[in-house]
Amino acid sequence: MSEERSSHTPIKKAGSGILGFLSSLCYIWWLETKSTIKDEGVLIFFILVPLAYPLLYSWIYNNEVVREVPVAIVDLSHSASSREFIRDFDASPDVHAAYYCNSLREAQGLAGKQAVHGVLYFPEDFDRTLNRGDQAHVGVYCDMSLMLTYKAIYQSALAVSLKMGEERQKPRSFSFTERDEELNTEPLSVDAQPIFNTTGGYGNAVLPGVLILILQQTLLLGIGLSAGTARENNRFQDLVPIGRHYDGIMKIVLGKSSCYFMVYCVMSAYITMAVPYFFSFTMLARPSDLFWLLLPYLLAVIFFGMTLSCMVRYRENVMLLVVFTSVPFLFLTGVSWPQSNIPGIWQGFSWLIPSTFGVRGYLRISSMGGSIDDILPEIRGLWIQAVVYFVTTCFVYRYQIISARKHAIAHYQMIQNSIRSAREKRADGK
């Protein structure tokens, strides 16, 4: 009987160890979840901002392209040719001939007041040069402060000039049929078909990347704010409190990360699937491919945020650390600036940021129709980041546990010394 009892003892100890680990992990997860719900700042960054920001950005860029851009017309030619050009130019849906001016100086004043975003200028010899068979010139002045208006004005003027040039060439082509005229005036026909951004708009081009970046930035802000709150509520401003549930690195890291992962599983599904559906963005990704991309992405961002949280001393610090990085992180993804034109040192730095691989992978499967095989390099990069940042998070919390114990021991010794000195004074008084 004694042998049987002794043989069952290690099994009971092992079972209690596993149950104790799971109990502490669930306890830390529950405390982190409860503090997330009670903390208004964390709740805003974890719930309200991911819900509202994608809708706000998508609504702002919902029109995709600009229409009826006001343009000032300076017609010094006053000829039938210039009026034909202006009529065709004004017929374009992208621009509108809003003002007719007598000089460039007058048109410049309208542009300075932002009444117009461009000027169309016809010199006095426009019709005479055109009928003589020489090359005529039309001046197009665009406001470059906004690329969308520049694109609308310039492309409309270019299309009208090409079409008008074709019509002028037909009588001089010595053609016998309409087909001969087409071949002589337009020997090379260009049929432009947008492959990925079918609408040709700004929303479909940039907003999918912004949506993935919102996931990262709100997670970093929420985790940093939670860490700042934990330090402010701690007597010694330690990130980890003293307690029997906080005596292991894995318990703390897995418990806290499980809370963040649980919340952002819902947020990521909403941002990557519901928002594009609401605003009719191009969405070619399959749910299974999204899952295999977002799983390592969320883990990499969570552990990245937990590693950075060691630098947050107060709640306000996280705003200084994270908010100003949104635009640089977006540029480093290669969405708004060609990846090939990014300097090598910045490309190397971008590999440290989870949004770099997350945005590129999401665009390939959502806008370009790629499969899971097409984004394997991005998925591998995210898994490597998740593992590396998990290790750094463990080192950070190991240091925090040691620091918290040192502060607790020092405080305990200070109390003991105070008690001892008080007793000695009382004994001397007697």
Major sheet strand order: 2-1-3-4
Order of helices and strands: HHEHEHEHEHHHHHHHHHH
The tally of helices reads 15
Q: What assembly state would you assign to the polypeptide chains in this entry?
A: single chain
Please outline the major beta sheet: 4 strands, mixed
The parts where pLDDT drops under 50 for at least 5 residues are 1-15
Q: Can you count the beta strands?
A: 4
Structural class: mainly alpha
Helix content: 55-70%
Task: Summarize this entry quickly.
This protein is mostly helical.
What does this structure look like?
The structure is a single chain. The chain has 430 residues and is mainly α. The chain is 67% helix and 5% strand. The protein contains 15 helices and four strands. The chain has helices spanning 2-38, 40-60, 80-91, 104-112, 126-131, 147-169, 178-185, 202-233, 249-278, 287-308, 317-322, 326-332, 344-350, 354-366, 376-429; strands spanning 69-75, 95-101, 118-122, 139-142. Helix 1 crosses helix 2, helix 1 (2-38) packs across helix 9 (249-278) and helix 9 (249-278) packs across helix 10. It is elongated, with a radius of gyration of 33 Å. The chain starts with a helix and ends with a helix.
Offer a few descriptive terms.
430 residues, mainly alpha, four-stranded mixed β-sheet, 4 strands, 67% helix
Write the layout of secondary structure elements.
Elements: H1 2-38, H2 40-60, E1 69-75, H3 80-91, E2 95-101, H4 104-112, E3 118-122, H5 126-131, E4 139-142, H6 147-169, H7 178-185, H8 202-233, H9 249-278, H10 287-308, H11 317-322, H12 326-332, H13 344-350, H14 354-366, H15 376-429
Parallel strand pairs: 1-2, 1-3
Antiparallel strand pairs: 3-4
